[in-house]
């Protein structure tokens, strides 16, 4: 793939891998650089099922958005949204609930630039270049883009919290987001874990930290604690493929090998 075919925003350092682009490569996307592919290959060589975990996460996100739309949610705040690939949150949400509003947030300018291009002219959608650790700014910008924080919102934190180190208080950040949305809102989290994983998988997941953002593997108990103030809906926090599997989705032959948990909670 050409490295200068017009989609690269100015000022991007192509010598440092980015989580969004490594993830894009694993999903079969085209928005990644040699440095991202090299790191992805290194990770994949150590543990072949890491790509499966990432694809499983993406499929989970799609079925969870369908679930949330079916619960009547009409506003989605997708934080750490990444590079849009087929079956984006807004496509699923708008398909299931015409008139839905979807705001994407990502720290990566490449991801944001692509989201802007894809969302150009799509009513009800918007994108913010921001660090989720600045919750006040994320919320203020989301409101400017039309999110009504007096009405239920689904806050989506898919595959992003493990990039937030403990020193940045991920629990506090999630609590601040949860406090900003009214009862009837939902919180979605998917998060990498070392629980039940062999050492080489753990090592490979830690390698993702070489993208410049530390990756932190957390336990089920830690991740569950982020849902304080929300009631986990069935089946609770489970390895990703076990969250309300849909017969239409690709089958994960070995759900236990997926090194990440997923859960959705409702604010009562
Ligand atoms: N949410 C998408 C999904 O689940 O398919 C993409 C997940 S991707 C693994 C993680 C994304 O989180 C990347 O696009 C990365 O740029 C973004 N990210 C990492 N740290 C972030 C932060 N502090 N604030 C906002 N986004 C962040």
From TrEMBL:
Residues 246-257 have a biased composition (Basic and acidic residues). CDD domains: AdoMet_MTases. It comes from Actinoplanes siamensis. Residues 246-268 are annotated as: Disordered. Coiled coil: none annotated. Gene3D superfamilies: Vaccinia Virus protein VP39. This is S-adenosyl methyltransferase.
């Amino acid at each position: 793939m050409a490295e200068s075919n017009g989609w690269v925003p100015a000022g991007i350092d192509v010598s440092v891998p980015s989580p969004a682009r490594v993830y894009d490569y694993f999903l079969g996307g085209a928005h990644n650089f040699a440095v991202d592919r090299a790191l992805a290959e290194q990770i994949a060589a150590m543990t072949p099922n890491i790509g499966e975990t990432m694809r499983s996460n993406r499929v989970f996100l799609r079925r969870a958005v369908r679930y949330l739309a079916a619960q009547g949610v009409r506003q989605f705040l997708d934080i750490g949204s990444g590079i849009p690939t087929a079956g984006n949150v807004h496509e699923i949400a708008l398909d299931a609930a015409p008139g839905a509003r979807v705001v994407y947030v990502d720290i990566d300018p490449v991801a944001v630039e692509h989201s802007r291009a894809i969302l150009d002219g799509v009513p009800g959608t918007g994108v913010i270049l921001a660090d989720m650790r600045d919750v006040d700014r994320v919320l203020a910008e989301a409101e400017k883009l039309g999110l009504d924080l007096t009405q239920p919102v689904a806050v989506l934190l898919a595959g992003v919290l493990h990039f937030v180190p403990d020193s940045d208080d991920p629990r506090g950040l999630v609590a601040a987001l949860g406090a900003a949305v009214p009862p009837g809102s939902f919180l979605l989290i998917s998060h990498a874990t070392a629980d039940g994983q062999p050492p080489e998988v753990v090592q490979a997941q830690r390698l993702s930290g070489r993208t410049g953002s530390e990756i932190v593997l957390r336990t089920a108990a830690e991740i569950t604690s982020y849902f304080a103030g929300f009631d986990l809906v069935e089946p609770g926090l489970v390895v990703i493929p076990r969250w309300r599997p849909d017969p239409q989705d690709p089958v994960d032959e070995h759900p236990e090998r997926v090194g990440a948990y997923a859960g959705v909670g409702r604010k009562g």
